[in-house]
Amino acid sequence: MDNNAKNSDKKPKSKGSFRSFMGGMGKAARNNLKIIVLSTVIAVIVWILVSVQVFPTIETSISGIPIQVQPTEYMVSNNLEIIDSYTGTTDIRIEGKRYDISALKADDFYATLDLSSIRSAGTFTVPVTVSSKTGVEYNLIETSQLAVTLTIDEIATREFTITAYAPDISLPEGYYVDEITASPATVTVTGSASVLDKISRIEAKAAINGEIHESHEVQTPLTMYTANGSKLVNDDIKISTESVLVNIPIYMQKELPLTFSFAGVPQYFDIDSLGFKIQPGSIMVAAPDDSISNLSELNIGTVNIADIRLNQTVSTIPITLPEGYKNLSGNNSARVTWDIADYGRLDFPVTNITTVNTPDNMEVDIITKELTLSVIGPSEQLSALTSGDFYITANLLGVSLHDGSQDVPVTIMITGTDGSNCLAVGSYRITVSARTVTGEE
Fold this sequence. Notes:
Blueprint lengths: L2 H52 L2 E12 L4 H5 L2 E3 L6 E9 H4 L7 E5 L8 E11 L6 E5 L3 E19 L3 E2 L4 E3 L3 E3 L2 E7 H4 L4 E5 L4 E2 L4 E6 L1 E3 L12 E2 L3 E6 L1 E14 L11 E5 L2 E6 L10 E7 L9 E5 L7 E2 L5 E7 L3 E8 L2 E4 L5 E5 L4 E8 H5 L6 E6 L8 E6 L1 E4 L8 E2 L4 E8 L5
Parallel strand pairs: 1-4, 7-12, 8-13, 18-21, 26-29
Antiparallel strand pairs: 1-3, 2-7, 3-6, 4-5, 5-7, 7-11, 9-18, 10-17, 11-16, 12-15, 14-17, 18-20, 19-24, 20-23, 22-24, 25-28, 27-33, 28-32, 29-31, 30-33
């Protein structure tokens, strides 16, 4: 056999050996990798078991635990609040079983402030308490925030009356500005009691100037002032309203003479003969419109002439004004002094008694045959009168008559020429007997 034939026989044999060799190496590598992985797992397990047995307790640090602040029931019920709300964190170092604490983080802990000692406003240093949310056992070795200093204040609500004014207005002659008011008249302010203590007044200064002659309403912001006159600005206090409506009432004023009316003046009586003086003679009146410009005097009431007595030379009349008017003079009443110094008084028995306007269906008999009148007047004229100068009349028009006896009012008339300045004082009645008349009678 030649060499070529030999060589051709050897070549295939070399390729097959190489492939066998590489296949054996791959299989060995795969087996070694499994051995390596398995060895690593076994080593970790062994390390854990050894660590637990040899080093059962470890130390670890946890950072950034939020410190929570919760007011106590006592603080809430007594309006005690923390000024400048506290926010902060604490770091801790703990020890414990490795398998208990090694995985703990900040979210697994509570950090709170112990506010149980706070019973009033002031500055307090309170401890920080750390506890576990999960119930894991551990020992607290160190806390970065052992205590926190807080400022506690009492939160109060107080009511203040608003001072409203318009210092820059002027009024023409004959006009009057009434009290300037605010609507609402009061505001409530809530905040630190120490800040509220500084508030001396709350003002509403109306932004209106120049001459005015009619009422105005102006929306006006509020300003708080301290006792020394400086403005108080504090963003931590709350006010029930930031602005109010300032009312500036303008009145027309005028001085009006006082007068009064007489009632019950007898026929033929000369009312001008009854001298009198009224005090005060006039008052200053303010009206919310120009209606006062058409008034030349002010009638304050009525005096019944029958009420005048010799021993009462002064009568009092209350001064009342229409709604909306103001009495700037402040007089609540006027005194009327009667000029009756030379007057006298006499009693006259009078029998001239008649009735008028008797209803057609009634028959009326006068039972009173004589009535004594008390008469006052100038002494000279009074002495010249006789009973025959007096006539007593019962006007039955509008009187509700019934069968039987009843009293009815009467009027007095003096016919004597000398009696024009005399009058019967007081009220008088007579008794009459009435009977219903049928159509057949």
